[in-house]
Amino acid sequence: MHTDSIYCVFQSNSTSPAKFTGVLPSSRSKFFKRSIPNNLRDLKSIHPPILSTSPEDYYLSSDESLKEKVFSWNSSMCYDSFSTEEDVILFVKGANKNHLAINRSPTELKCLFSNGVNTVITSVTSSSQEVFRCLHPSETEIHGLGDEKIRVALQLNDSVIPSVAYYRPLARNLIHPEKKQLCASTMVHNVSKFLREWVIFHSRLGIDKFVFYDNGSEDGLQDVVNKLTGDYNIDIEVIFWPWPKTQEAGFSHSAIRSRESCTWMMYTDVDEFVFSPKWVNSLEPSSGMLKSLLPINISTLPSQKIGQVMIFCYEFGPSDQKVHPVEGVTQGYTCRSRKLNRHKSIVLLDAIDTSLFNVIHHFELKDGYQSKKVISRDAVVNHYKYQAWSEFQAKFKRRVSAYVADWTDPVNPMSKDRTPDLGFEPVEPKDWGERFCEVQDMGLKMLAQKWFGLVSSEGHIMVWQDA
């Protein structure tokens, strides 16, 4: 079925255009977005629509889909799975209370593998946040389920959580590519205009591969990625991850999925740039700069093995910018708060605890590993958090990836994710341009100009402006 002109035909033969959005990583199923027709929105239950190439098709009452209901993201749902050699990792919304840090015991849970007729049940071995680890069915049990698509779900006591996740046995890959030493993974949503600067900068400093979890971007992400891979030969992988408010789960997925291809993984956002004062005298960037922050030999002292490097952040303010600076955020925003804030991390993937538990940008580690805090004279993260007002509004409206309330929603007013003294009204404060400005910090601006500045007929531009 071609994806150019697809319609969803609902009960009562109401139709809605369906937009192809991506391919789900586990089942390889195509993912479509569509709006619910206005005349159906007040119904207590809506049955799954059928996909059609014509809005003239009829929704027959005898259709098998009438036996089900449309799943709501506002309720519990099994939404993805991933198979390892040891087990099956199931991603489930609503089974644990993440905001209260309450996780159910694995003994309360079972994993169900079903082809719609027959079901195989296995034990759950780990329950943390939205990540549940289940035992594989045996080869005999899988054979009994046949060649049909096998849906995997989580059973809680006597109830089964609805599922759109499918089981795929681990593919046996006899050829293992050489591991990249240092990769970077982040979740992105409509940040394409920031991407060139962030990728080019960090690739020149030593990131060997970028793994982007695309949270439903609609701003030409793939076009930007294609140009970066084609023009600069940068290794970039895009994983379609449409699930709202699941950044921790996405990072867990990234950590386990990339374990065979990457040794260390850097977790920062695309408005965060690693900077070391020790680099300012370097005439050009080198691929060893970021790697120099990693421990030299992780196995020298087993009782003191470093599994995570934590780098603290300086938060930059609007710096009197009225719009997004065309030369990039490192050039446009130069005024910051004095105090160091939250940290971001570079993690040894083999050191991550089997629960895959993480609080955004750092992980729980296995016994025998510890985290190392980097002092500010060795490295910091420049976090361009509070930008020009129009960008600030867009950023906090697109925070679909993390479990953080929109800044106009008066929920959890003491959260560190709140903008200090902003309130909840979507009105630009008169002094917005001067806020969060305690220190003029030109360090990264001048260094980036030296490394990435170009002289053109239009004057001095940055390499990432050359689109």
TrEMBL record:
<dbReference type="InterPro" id="IPR029044">
    <property type="entry name" value="Nucleotide-diphossugar_trans"/>
</dbReference>
<dbReference type="GO" id="GO:0005737">
    <property type="term" value="C:cytoplasm"/>
</dbReference>
<keyword id="KW-0808">Transferase</keyword>
<dbReference type="GO" id="GO:0016757">
    <property type="term" value="F:glycosyltransferase activity"/>
</dbReference>
<dbReference type="GO" id="GO:0016020">
    <property type="term" value="C:membrane"/>
</dbReference>
<keyword id="KW-0472">Membrane</keyword>
<dbReference type="Pfam" id="PF01697">
    <property type="entry name" value="Glyco_transf_92"/>
</dbReference>
<keyword id="KW-0328">Glycosyltransferase</keyword>
<keyword id="KW-0812">Transmembrane</keyword>
<comment type="similarity">
    <text>Belongs to the glycosyltransferase 92 family.</text>
</comment>
<keyword id="KW-1133">Transmembrane helix</keyword>
<dbReference type="InterPro" id="IPR008166">
    <property type="entry name" value="Glyco_transf_92"/>
</dbReference>
<protein>
    <recommendedName>
        <fullName>Glycosyltransferase family 92 protein</fullName>
        <ecNumber>2.4.1.-</ecNumber>
    </recommendedName>
</protein>
